[in-house]
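Record type: ASSEMBLY
Status: queued
Input:
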Amino acid sequence: MTMAVRNTNMSDAKAIPTIATKAVVLPFVPPKSQTGARIRQMAINIATAVVPPLITVALILIVWQILCARPGATLPAPSVVWAEANDLIVSPFFNFGSQDIGLGWRVLVSLQRVLVGFGLAAVVGIMLGTLVGQSVWAMRGLDPVFQVLRTVPPLAWLPIALAAFRDSQPSAIFVIFITSIWPVIINTAVGIRNIPQDYRNVALVLRLNAFEYFAKIMVPAAAPYIFTGLRIGIGLSWLAIVAAEMLTGGVGIGFFIWDAWNSSRLPDIVVALIYIGVVGFMLDRLVSLIGRLATRGVAVN
Amino acid sequence: MNRPYLKIDQVSKVFNRGSMSTEVLKDISLDIERGEFVSIIGHSGCGKSTLLNIIAGLTPATIGGILLEDREVNSPGPDRAVVFQNHSLLPWLTVYDNVRLAVDKVFGRQKSRAERHAWTMHNLDLVQMGHAADKRPSEVSGGMKQRVGIARALAMEPKVLLLDEPFGALDALTRAHLQDSVMQIHATLGNTVIMITHDVDEAVLLSDRIVMMTNGPSARVGEVLTVPLARPRKRLELVTNATYTKSRESVLKFLYERHQFVEAA
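Status: finished
Output:
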């Protein structure tokens, strides 16, 4: 390094000596400004992600406050929600007896139902989707039935489920199951049908048996599609659980909204809506994250 | 009577699409000896890939069949390993696991775990890819992917190695490197190789015999040229070699004078 500097010094010394002195100073400057620039860049990145939604939320709150603070307004203003439902917002996990519990507990109960219903839908859906994607005859026979059944709204299944199970708990789980299974089946089938012929040829040359083919080629190759189906499915099941719980009762977040409506606690309903939204968002992100981790490298070919 | 190692016996292939039927290959017969390197050359669309798929067992022949060591083969298997044109590596597996999958499947019973690991690494080293064993296919270049494809095929210890335009998607320099590697491997291991190509220089450089196919439909074997060049062959020395030039010329004449490619309108 010093050699190089000295060399340029010697060659440039007669012509422009000042440049050489500058060249010695320069190496000391960049490291400081680099870390500084990196921190600034990070701050800018965070700000560009966080500031716009904060502004939006603030604007919504302001407009809402103005609209609902007038005399004769039918809905509670944000200030009223904060004042009346303070305990629900501040402490999600209080427990004062059977129906007087925090929203966190209620969300957990609803999530448990979703987990069971959606878990079943994922397993059965991937298996049926594999069958439909793999066999032309299964597709011809099953696909029309699936296409008709998937358009049935979740709540339309509830009376049938109640009649069959004679209990609200399995009925709610069944509604989750039947709501979220269709996108899983359909996406899995598309994923399986789209496995490139090259991978099938590799499996043929290697003489993989049915199980090895399923585990080593089919599932990884179709994984991006399967996870798209799972992501749509979990969104739908979160939509369905609230409606189902409104009708079946119990402890879940859906029943809480119905109960609050019956006892005219509108601020509580507003808080519950925000809970549902945030949890739904987190579920979506969770499945998407698992999908990204599980399908690393598959999308890029 | 001396029977050939691999016999392609009067193979014809007709594709039926609805009421339309197209005869792609007509009456192809070819005997290939053990350790021979045979190239199949022809214009695109002449059915050379179909012929390779029939030998591999991926496509059934309409008439005729393939005999390997006197036994008919009509389903795919690791004794006829294929190096596919677009490498066909499984993108969710590392370079090592792609080869290991083949090794485990073919030698799962005969070799111990440690032996299979050693054999996988041996084959990766053979194509100079041992250094990238833990990378995923998306992280290595096109030429490297094809090297791994070759390693995977070699690792099956095939009786016949089938190369389906293996260097078609590569740039000229990478292609030359890979051709040298294939020549070296062929010299070391003495594999029987059938290669599909549309590159005249590649065919002459690598092959013992060049099978020239006429234009489809109903493509036949037009001519078979023996390349009497001694091995090892050196790319640079061959440029001025009279035999090389003559072989090259006769293939070119076949392709561009007698069986000129007619563009389908």
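Annotation: Chain A touches chain B through 21 residues (CB under 8 Å).
Annotation: Chain A has 13 helices and no strands.
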